[in-house]
What does this fold into?
Amino acid sequence: MSEDAPPVRSVPFTTALKFWLKLGFISFGGPAGQIAIMFHELVERRRWISERRFLHALNYCMLLPGPQAQQLATYVGWLMHGTWGGIVAGSLFVLPSLFLLIALSWVYVAFGDAPVVAGIFYGIQPAVVAIVLHAAHRIGSRALKNAWLWGIAAAAFVAIFVFNAPFPAIVAAAAVVGTIGGRLMPARFAIGSSHSLHASVRSPALVDDTTPRAPHTSLTHRRLAQVTIIGLVLWSGLLGLLLLEFGWNGTLTQMGWFFTKAALVTFGGAYAVLPYVYQGAVEHYGWVTAPQMAAGLALGETTPGPLIMIVSFVGFVAGFTHELFGNARFAAGVAGAVVATVFTFLPSFVFIFAGAPLVESTYGNQRWMAPLTAITAAVVGVILNLALFFAAHALWPQGHGGPFDTRAAAIATACAIALFRLRLGVLPVIAGAALVGLASRLLGG
It folds into this structure.
């Protein structure tokens, strides 16, 4: 293919749209599992983007507040098909989860516990443990190319697991180490190596390491200003409509303002912002109760889409239980879920469309790539900590000191064998775990 027609254009927009829609329905496992799914589909299976370009985009998304996996999908969609590609990829990553959470939230508040749903969730929770561990292995095996990067990953794990260090501090420390290391030992902090994927050698990616940049990826001050202005106009316009309709103290208006702030402090993913959301939604505004918040976390952990989609649950429950529209409780719940979701994710689109051209302009520049390589190594350690977090909740459901759930452990072990040894895909593993969990709950209590 010639440089005048970048290879990325050989992926039809409709083909990409179908993939992003599929991804929205199978993106289980939190950010680590979702990134692993995208890596397998985009880098290994479809060869739409090279490993190095994928990691370069991932590193940028790790620096941003907000849901990294959704931002990564937006970035790749933008890289392939421009602004509309990014909008479609980022939106479809969220919409299936939004619809599903609205339905499940309605079941939760209207009918209480549903044995069938509870059984399905019971099976999926330990499967998520295996998925995240598998993701840590897959990403780590490609990112940790030498002892220095292994050391950074280990230090990040100890920092967050033992000392509960905030994720932004871990990222900053890794960036500093990468900056210094990139100057003193540049070969140790280069993305990729001669031991990269064999598939990369057999079949070049459509967006490969040497693919010429498409025109829409060029960095211009005009484009940056346009994206910033459009983002601010959309945000202020939506918030202004809520203000005119419900007043500043209206629940939906306060949701828009609160979840905008939450979107800007979600460094480190959903678990880093959950205390902030809990404090605001439970203690300050009283939108949901503590038990309801815990139920929302369980739904967020076991449904596709970013874990931060728990905000949709909070919005629905608040609108439904507070009867914002009088007797139209379901409509009020949907309005709350949509408002919470839109104001949480709108900043992410602005960050990608504004910053991605700058990131693309730094590709291949060792001064920029070295700290990002170190950040990727640190993220491996953080993902391992996330796996342990999921394991603690799935295997000891009653908390520290409670009984060990042997059935959940058996499901997690079987899922790990299916992923690591049998090399099954994430979707069949989740489906199988859901069926086993349902049968276990219905037959065994």
